Amino acid sequence: MVDVPVGAIDADDPNNPIEEPYQLFFPPVKMTTSGSEVRSTTPLTSMLWNEMKLKLDVEDNAMSSCADLKLAIQLQGITDNSIQELENGVASRNNVSVKQLYSDFIKEDDTEVKALTQKLMPVIKQSYRESKMLRQENPAAEEAYVSYIVRSEEDTNGEQNDQWYKVQVTKSDSKVETRAYEVTSELVDPKLLEHLVTYTAENSDLSYTREYGLRRETQGNQESIENLSFNCSIKETIEESHWIDANLWLTYVVTNQSGTEKESEMDDCLKNDFARDDYEQNIEVMAINSSQDQGTVITGHRFTFDQDTTPYDQWADLNRNLDNVGGNLLGSFSHIDIDFGEEQGYGSLSWVRSKAEFSQDESPQVLTIKYSDGTWFKETDYDDGNTVYECSESGSGQWNVCGYQLAFTNKYKVLNDTRLPVFKALAASWQQ
What is the dihedral of CA 98, 162, 417, 233, to 10 degrees? Predict the structure, then answer.
């Protein structure tokens, strides 16, 4: 991180000293994919790091745990997996190469990147100003900052999106508060899209997250944002992991999503109780089975219930301090078969089973997914960065290239781009 104070000289404009302070960021050397040391700190590296920080703080906290080793492996997996995706995204949106993100564009007289960085400087300065104000307003917060980002195509249903968004984050003790706004191209007139308040807790077995979400009804709605109402929902996530033997690691995750209520303020949303008469429950079981002979096989299964079909309602609507918890997830779900070939649904409304296979050599990683309705999908990732998506009606018949489907998105995959790198890193540590 580089602090640029008032009066500093910008080599790009040496005759006009800096009149307004700001900060520039770049990822640590080990987090870049170029293999060389980062020497140039630019607005582009700052935009990249802003997105990385948000991903670490907000998006990828679903696997948080009290275990320091597990957390370290998780962060390693997240950063190693995410940095290339983020580099490609920032470079693509700004119509430059990944190499140009880190270039000394002044020395190289790269007029294209120079013009782009001048365009991004108002964003950098605005983030700095607002982060400073937010820290002053929240002196007790462990962390408080504002970032301006462009959402990914996956966040916008696959559509190319040049819309700027403002994301404001404050973290204090066991609470994280996030607000996301849509802003104009001049970064003004923010309109609140969503407001999330998340509480975390843990005991000797479980980690627990309870999220209150206030969101605009934007899906399929062409009205102006300020005319759209808010929905309030409550989501809780319970997670637990166990070593079963030297080669088997199990992770259980229960996610409960309550029905929505119309609210206009977060204070009103926080007063709502979890709707036990209207909720969806997902039970996920993930396993790492590793051996020197067969490589590593990782399986991940999800079973979806509602309030009428779940036999596990004791795992819904837990107290935030976990004082109403009896037992653990292993005791409740050890009967679920982790074999990919199994097709029992355990009374669920629907299920999905997935299997990731890979070796320590340069063979491709293959993720196979099958749904309870009989559809199958296969995602093959090659070392050269290419990915092939295939579909089948049975899994045992013909596979056809089918292009990118919803089944391949992070939102729908059990072994998604957050979890799978964590499990792979853990499996690799066994073989060292």
Answer: 160
Whole-angstrom Cα distance, residue 30 to residue 367? 27
Contacts 24+ apart (CB under 8 A), 341-345: 343/372, 345/303, 345/372
Q: For the range 155-162, what are the long-range contacts, defined as Cβ-Cβ under 8 Å and sequence gap of 24 or more? A: 158/404, 162/93
Is the alpha carbon torsion for 425, 427, 431, 432 positive or negative? Answer: positive
Angstrom distance (rounded) from CA 213 to CA 266: 8
What is the model's pTM?
0.77
Q: Which of 5-9, 27-31, 213-217, 300-304 has the lowest mean pLDDT?
A: 27-31
CA–CA gap between residue 223 and residue 216 (Å, rounded)? 11
Task: Work out the pLDDT band at 274, boundaries 50, 70, 90.
Answer: very high
Q: Which residue has the tokens 């980002």?
A: 149
**pLDDT, tens digit, for every residue of 345-383?**
999 999 999 999 877 666 788 999 999 999 999 999 887
**Cβ–Cβ < 8 Å for 272, 334:** no
pLDDT at site 286: 96
- How far apart, in Å, are the Cα atoms of 257 and each of 98, 211, 232, 316, 351? 39, 9, 11, 9, 17
Give residue 160's pLDDT.
47
Q: CA torsion sign, 270 to 316 to 329 to 298?
A: negative
CB-based contact 10:117 (threshold 8 Å): no
Cβ–Cβ < 8 Å for 385, 358: no
What is the secondary structure of 18-65 as a DSSP string?
--S-EEE----GGG-SSSS------HHHHHHHHHHHHIIIIIT-TT--
Residues 6+ apart with CB under 8 A from 320: 199, 201, 208, 210
C-alpha distances in Å from residue 185, one per residue of 8, 12, 120, 189, 421? 27, 24, 11, 10, 35
Q: Which one, of 93, 94, 56, lies nearest residue 75 by Cα? A: 56
Decide if 345 contacts 283 (C-beta within 8 A). no
Least confident range from 55-59, 106-110, 204-208: namely 55-59
Contact 3, 21 (CB under 8 A): yes
Q: What ranges in 259-352 are assigned the alpha helix state H?
A: 266-270, 329-333
**Mean pLDDT of all residues in the chain?**
79
15 three-state secondary structure: coil
Q: Give me 429's structure tokens.
A: 């540590």
Q: Give the three-class secondary structure for 336.
A: coil
Dihedral angle computed from the Cα positions of residues 71, 76, 79 and 82, in that order, rounded to the nearest 10 degrees: -100
